């Protein structure tokens, strides 16, 4: 029996230190909700999780861009639906002005309404959305994924000749009304094409938005499997380490008391 070197106490102290360390890690996991509280827990898993977190954040930003693009197109269509009503009325005025029983004074009144509606259509062509022209005709590139790839959203040009020619029509004479009707009908045809273009943009962007939501959900699930703690399993481990710490503390006390037995040999 020796008293200078207490191997039992050293071993107990080492094991108690290990149990205490594991208990601390278990507490950190349960309190943070993450099973990777330090790079040493899972170095490779941490690296993968960081990349997934970054990709998920980029997807969230992409969804914002796509949603704004959808709102842009919906605003376009809202304005064009009013243009459609204006052009319909202008075509009606063109027909009314061709009535043989109408006088030139009557046609002059039709011209006033025709000019007012034309000015309304011309004004809508200048509208913008957050400083971006709604009807400038330029294609806009919308980001569609976390890598920055884009979709070229077709533009609508309401300053095209089909519109400006129609809004500048003259229904103050029968001959002018005939020409004005032809021009307005061409504008209505162009408007139908432009609304179809906007509708196609909205459909494409809506599909992209849904795809981004599904991808984000799947990436979040994958990331969760890597870094999120299983509370039930970790609670079991916590109870185990807690018992080991308590038992180790008791055994260390016993080991430290062992050398005292040497006193009996001296009495």
Low-confidence stretches: none
Structure classification: mainly alpha
Helix-residue proportion: over 70%
Sheet with the most strands, sense and barrel status: 2 strands, antiparallel
Going by CATH, the architecture of the largest domain would be Up-down Bundle
CATH topology of the largest domain: f41 fragment of flagellin, N-terminal domain
Question: What's this, in brief?
Answer:
The chain contains 7 helices and 4 strands; from the N terminus they run αααββββαααα.
Write structural notes for this entry.
The chain is mainly α and 267 residues long. It has two domains: 7-33 and 238-265; 52-227, f41 fragment of flagellin, N-terminal domain, CATH 1.20.1330. It is 72% helix and 4% strand. It has seven helices and four strands. It has helices at 7-32, 43-96, 104-124, 161-167, 174-227, 231-257, 262-265, and strands at residues 128-129, 132-133, 140-143, 150-153. The longest helix has 54 residues, at 43-96.
Give the helices and strands, then pairings:
Elements: H1 7-32, H2 43-96, H3 104-124, E1 128-129, E2 132-133, E3 140-143, E4 150-153, H4 161-167, H5 174-227, H6 231-257, H7 262-265
Helix pairs in contact: 1-6, 2-3, 2-5, 3-4, 4-5
